[in-house]
Write a structure and sequence with these properties.
The chain is of the alpha/beta class. It is built from twelve helices and twelve strands. Helix 2 links the parallel strand 2 and strand 3. Helix 5 runs parallel beside helix 6 and helix 8 crosses helix 9.
Length: about 325
C-alpha cells in the first residue's frame, strides 16, 4: 500500500470546516498538514474555526498565515448563535460563499460515537450548502434512521472521500459511494519523521489520559507507579487543552499525580503549544508513551517510540491495524 500526499481536488478556492481550534493536538496536526498540502498545490484557503485568532497564532509557527483566511465557525446551539450575532459574525458568511469547494475534515468527522456529529456537519455547511464537498478522515456508516437521512444529504454533493483506513473505504463502497480512497491521516506528514534526535540525558516517560478513557485511570496509575519506581521522570502532556472539563486533559494530570503520590520535581507538564518542534523532540526521546488519545499514539508510533495505548474508541484500533499494514 502506498502513501500519497496528493489531494485530487480540482477546485481553486477551498473552505475547510470541522471542529477547529478547540486546542486538540490531533485536530491541529490534521488541519496543519492538510493546509500545507493544499498550499503546495496552489490552492486558496479559508478555514472555519471556533477561535480563529488563536488558531492563526498557533499556525504562525509553521506556515505563512497571511495566505489563509480565518473565519468563525457556524454555531451549533441557540446560545452560541446569539453570541455569534452579537459579535457581528454574520457578515463572515460571505467569505464562506467565496469558496469553490468545501473540505469537511476532522479526527472523527462523521460517527455515531460522537453525538450529533451528522447534524453538526450539516449546520457547518449552511452558508455554502450548494458547494462541492470532499470528506476527509474516519467516516462511519450510520445505523440510526435519522442519521442515515442526514448522512445521505451530506453525500449528495460529495465528489470524493479521503478515508484514513481501509475498513472505511470498503464500508462506503458497500453503501454505494465509490469515489473513495485511502489517504493517510495527515498528521503523518506534519513533521520530519526522518530527523534523528539522539538520546536524552533524562530518563522519562510521557503520559496522557482524557475523559473518554477515564475508566483506564487505575491501570494508568499502576503503569506510572511501576516506571516511577524504576527512576523514570513522568512528563504529562495535555493533548486537549480546551476550557470545558470534557476536553481538558489537565484534570487527569492532577488525578494521576495524586494517585501515584509523585512529588512535583518528578512529575512535570510538557507544553506542546509553546514550541512544537521541541515537543516533538521530547516525544522522540521518551522511553515510552502511555496514552488514550489517538494522535499522541500516532506521533509516538511514527517516531518509533514504544507505546502503550488504552483504546476507548474503535478509531484507535483501526489506526493500529493501518500502521501494521503499512509496516514494510
Amino acid at each position: 500500500m502506498k502513501i500519497t500526499n496528493k489531494l485530487l481536488i480540482s477546485e481553486k478556492h477551498i473552505l475547510i470546516i470541522g471542529n477547529r481550534s478547540y486546542k486538540n493536538l490531533g485536530d491541529e496536526l490534521i488541519l496543519l498538514w492538510t493546509v500545507k498540502l493544499l498550499l503546495a498545490e496552489g490552492k486558496k484557503i479559508t478555514i472555519a474555526a471556533y477561535d480563529p485568532e488563536w488558531l492563526k497564532n498557533f499556525f504562525s509557527q509553521f506556515i505563512d498565515v497571511s495566505k489563509i483566511t480565518f473565519v468563525t465557525e457556524i454555531p451549533k446551539g441557540f446560545r452560541s448563535w446569539i453570541r455569534y450575532i452579537r459579535q457581528g459574525k454574520l457578515k463572515e458568511r460571505k467569505l464562506y460563499k467565496k469558496a469553490d469547494a468545501v473540505i469537511i475534515g476532522w479526527w472523527e468527522i462523521i460517527t455515531e460515537e460522537n453525538k450529533h456529529s451528522y447534524r453538526y456537519r450539516l449546520l457547518s455547511l449552511l452558508p455554502c450548502f450548494k458547494k462541492a464537498r470532499y470528506l476527509m478522515g474516519w467516516i462511519q456508516i450510520p445505523k440510526k434512521r435519522y442519521n442515515k437521512i442526514l448522512f445521505n444529504i451530506i453525500l449528495k454533493r460529495t465528489k470524493h472521500i479521503f478515508a484514513r483506513d481501509n475498513e472505511t473505504v470498503q464500508e462506503l463502497k458497500k453503501y454505494g459511494f465509490n469515489n473513495v480512497e485511502f489517504f493517510m491521516d495527515t498528521s503523518y506528514f506534519a513533521y520530519n519523521r526522518k530527523k534523528k534526535y539522539g538520546e536524552s540525558e533524562k530518563k522519562y516517560i510521557l503520559v496522557n489520559l482524557n475523559k473518554n478513557a477515564e475508566k483506564f485511570l487505575p491501570a494508568i496509575i499502576q503503569d506510572v507507579k511501576k516506571l516511577y519506581n524504576q527512576w523514570y521522570e513522568i512528563l504529562y502532556i495535555p493533548v486537549a487543552k480546551w476550557k470545558k472539563d470534557h476536553y481538558n486533559d489537565m484534570k487527569y494530570a492532577r488525578k494521576i499525580q495524586s494517585g501515584t503520590g509523585i512529588k512535583d520535581q518528578r512529575f512535570n507538564i510538557l507544553d506542546r503549544e509553546k514550541d512544537f518542534d521541541e515537543c516533538i523532540k521530547t516525544v522522540a526521546q521518551a522511553h515510552m508513551v502511555i496514552s488514550s488519545r489517538l494522535h499522541l499514539f500516532l506521533i509516538a508510533s511514527f517516531l518509533g517510540v514504544e507505546t502503550k495505548v488504552y483504546p476507548y474508541q474503535k478509531k484507535i484500533l483501526k489506526m493500529q491495524n493501518m500502521l501494521e499494514e503499512l509496516r514494510p
